[in-house]
Amino acid sequence: MTSTSTASATAASTASARRWLTLVTVGLAQLMVVLDATVVNIALPSAQADLGFSDGDRQWVVTAYSLAFGSLLLLGGRLSDLIGRKRTFIIGLIGFALASALGGAAPDFGILVAARALQGAFGALLAPTALAVLTTTFTIPKERARAFGVFGAIAGAGGALGLLLGGFLTEVLDWRWNLYINIFFAAIAIVGALLFIGRMTSSGPRPKLDVPGTILVSGGLFGIVYGFANAETDGWDSPLAWGVLTLAGILLVAFVLWQRRAAHPLLPLPIILNRNRGAAYLSILIAGSGMFATFLFVTYYLQLTLRFSPIQTGLAYLPMIAMLVLAAQLSTNLLFPRLGAKLMVPIGMLLGATAMVLLTRLDVGSTYAADVLPALMILGTAVGTIMPASMQTATYGVDRHFAGVASAMVNTSQQVGGAIGTALLNTIAATATTAYLTAHLVSGANPAATIASGAVAGYSAAYWWAAGFFAVGAIVAALLFRRRVPHVEPAPGADAPEPVAAH
């Protein structure tokens, strides 16, 4: 009897260790994908000088990644459901590493943009698959909370870590290492995937890929990201931007209508129509719209106004990352099980609004320690409170055969939110800066000082709007999240209803 108990305990310990090593593996892949949304930003001036492309073309190095990533996420999530998460994960890692190698060795602008688009496409395989692996691996509530705390912290802090790593690699080595570094990340993750990620076994006939649904939603998501990116560069009076956004809206409506009658829907509508999950997706979209644009303006302020170097700029985000990780662990392990998303997410949104209001107080005479640091630390706490709670709620209770596409919706919400927020807030900042310069550039004034003040005035206007985003997010989350849900309707293919945590 004793030997049997000892063997059982050993097997349980081994299984637990395997789960945590799986978390390390998928966390590394998620970090790589999120990093690449920002790590190249700091390297752009060096890449531009080396390859000789114009200021107008520069945005495509960033936009190519976002377009491919955002438009293919739902397809990537569904493929992980259909062909197996382990296989999809490894294919995504290999493809991402090869695309990164191509970008690092790019001899000209065209190859660099093509490599960034390939990175985005394989990232769209990786990101939802990583979260789906986490969702189906951690089923014990206490372990699940810890795992989502870590994963949510990675998802929230990855953008800021990208700025830190990008600054270091660009200054110490070369801009190309911002791409080459992914080869090492991917190699480690591939070994981890082969050793620790189990294969998903499925019963019954294999469902088919919803080709019409894939074309409709990929085209719609591409149109949203491209339309907002175009509006950011060409202005909101651009016919192309509005034409693409209108077409995107039509495609997404057609997608929803098709999903209602498709035999094998790409995104079963019960997944997003569940009230708690719908609230979680909206919360991630709203938080993403305020968060990613804020990284952009704070980075501009630190480098152009406070004259920080790229490495100093990256280091300036470290306290925010520390607060984000701490908040993510506290919220998922202590607060979320007791309070639920209905309280946690609105609290995080209000903290985000507070951070934005503090940032509106910045001027050309502000200092990092007294003025920027407190706002960044509050923002880190906000994101660490919002993201893990929303991600855990968004993927809880979904049939394991649809975990990939449900996870893809998390990444899609964050990506679309970031695209919308960046385009809107950039336009608002540029308009405010122009208005300030028109009013203050008079004869006898110091042009350099006026221009610097105008830039800060533009950032301030953007922060006020970001504060509004977070405030709206607090109201939406408080109204939509349920405190207690006895059960969740099963997704198509589920054998029985699964319980949802009492929120």
Characterise this structure.
The protein is an all-alpha fold and 503 residues long. The longest helix has 38 residues, at 403-440. The chain has a single domain (2-199, 264-480), classed as Up-down Bundle (Growth Hormone, Chain: A). It is built from 17 helices and no strands. It is globular.
| Rg result | 23 Å
CATH topology: Growth Hormone, Chain: A
Strand-residue proportion:
under 5%
Structural class by SSE content: mainly alpha
Distance between the termini: 41 Å
Indicate the mean pLDDT.
79
Q: List low-pLDDT spans.
A: 485-503
Total helical segments? 17
Give me a quick take on this structure.
The chain has 503 residues and is an all-alpha fold.
Question: Which key terms come to mind for this protein?
Answer:
Growth Hormone, Chain: A, 503 residues, 0% strand, disordered C terminus, 17 helices, mainly alpha
